[in-house]
């Protein structure tokens, strides 16, 4: 009995000693908090990455659009696009950069659909209804803009879209897109280096 009592007391003393032992606590605490810390740090870097790319894109597209509005811009649009692309790829080498330009006679025409005869009065264009083709592509468009830089005094909507794979895999881990896509648009009016061309539509009835 005495031996059992001594054994029980020794075990209690050992348990108390283990409870007071603080060795290795820091390692355990770090192991618990490290994933959260890394998530915050890398998440912040990923947000900063996107902000930096957007800032570079904004500055580049505004500079290119201003040069495109000059008479000289009518023949060097490819060169200007290359300058924008190089600026983006300097900070994000793997980025994919695409460009679109649409031109209009005036600012009020931007994003305006082509006129059509609403035969059935449903408020939307149907494939059997007549329409006025303003951009010359032979089909009805919800945006009457013509592709390209246009001419003197035309309004140009210049859009650059940047797509790149994010540095870290957190987005995919949380079910978000693995690739970040940043579109940027600027609208400028070409300089009056000549007389603005008159735009006329062609009535088309399918």
Structure description:
With 206 residues, the chain is an alpha+beta fold. The protein has one domain (2-204). The chain is 40% helix and 19% strand. Helix 2 packs antiparallel against helix 3 (77-91). The longest helix has 44 residues, at 25-68. It starts with a helix and ends with a strand. The mean pLDDT is 83.
SS summary, helix count: 4
- Characterize the overall form: flat
Q: Averaged pLDDT, please?
A: 83
Q: Helix share of residues?
A: 25-40%
Radius of gyration (CA) equals: 32 Å
Number of domains: 1
Structural class: alpha+beta
Strand arrangement in the largest pleated sheet: 3-1-4-5
Give a concise summary.
By secondary structure, the protein is α+β, with helices and mostly antiparallel strands. It has helices spanning 2-20, 25-68, 77-91, 170-173; strands at residues 96-104, 131-133, 146-147, 155-165, 179-189, 202-204. The longest helix has 44 residues, at 25-68.
Structural descriptors:
two-stranded antiparallel sheet; alpha+beta; 206 residues; 6 strands
Write the layout of secondary structure elements.
Elements lengths: L1 H19 L4 H44 L8 H15 L4 E9 L26 E3 L12 E2 L7 E11 L4 H4 L5 E11 L12 E3 L2
Antiparallel strand pairs: 1-3, 1-4, 2-6, 4-5
Helix pairs in contact: 2-3
């Amino acid at each position: 009995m005495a031996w059992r009592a001594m054994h029980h007391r020794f075990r209690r003393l050992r348990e108390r000693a283990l409870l007071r032992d603080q060795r290795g606590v820091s390692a355990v605490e770090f192991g618990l908090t490290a994933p959260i810390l890394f998530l915050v740090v890398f998440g912040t870097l990923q947000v900063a990455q996107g902000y930096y790319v957007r800032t570079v894109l904004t500055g580049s597209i505004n500079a290119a659009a201003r040069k495109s509005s000059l008479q000289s811009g009518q023949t060097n649009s490819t060169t200007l696009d290359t300058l924008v692309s190089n600026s983006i790829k300097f900070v994000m080498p793997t980025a994919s950069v695409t460009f679109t330009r649409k031109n209009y006679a005036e600012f009020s025409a931007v994003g305006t659909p082509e006129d059509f005869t609403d035969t059935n009065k449903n408020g939307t264009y149907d494939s059997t209804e007549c329409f006025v083709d303003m951009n010359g592509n032979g089909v009805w468009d919800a945006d009457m803009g013509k592709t390209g830089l246009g001419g003197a005094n035309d309004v140009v909507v210049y859009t650059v879209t940047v797509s790149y794979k994010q540095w870290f895999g957190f987005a995919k881990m949380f079910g978000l897109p693995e690739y970040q896509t940043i579109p940027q648009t600027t609208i400028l009016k070409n300089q009056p280096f000549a007389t603005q061309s008159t735009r006329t539509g062609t009535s088309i009835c399918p």
